[in-house]
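Researcher: I'd like a candidate sequence for this fold, 81 residues long. If you have to choose between options at a position, lean toward the conservative one.
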């Protein structure tokens, strides 16, 4: 069990909200890493991080989370390429 999952299990009352917050945090980390990789011209890394962002978007759509906060990260990433 990962540390993030264990933390979510302890905060069980709003488990789905906590999970979404965890996804938001992961998304911010990936966007930061992607921007850093782009500055270093690490094209393969940027590609892999784009795939990670797409998977997070898919997971959040699956969980029916259509919040603006994640959508703006994904739109910004798509327009910067």
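Model: Candidate sequence:
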């Amino acid at each position: 069990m990962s540390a993030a999952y264990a933390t979510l299990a302890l905060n069980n009352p709003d488990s789905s909200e906590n999970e979404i917050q965890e996804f938001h945090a992961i998304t911010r980390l990936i966007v930061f890493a992607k921007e850093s990789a782009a500055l270093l011209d690490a094209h393969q890394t940027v590609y892999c991080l784009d795939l990670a962002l797409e998977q997070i978007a898919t997971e959040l759509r699956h969980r029916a989370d259509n919040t603006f906060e994640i959508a703006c990260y994904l739109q910004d990433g798509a327009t910067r390429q």
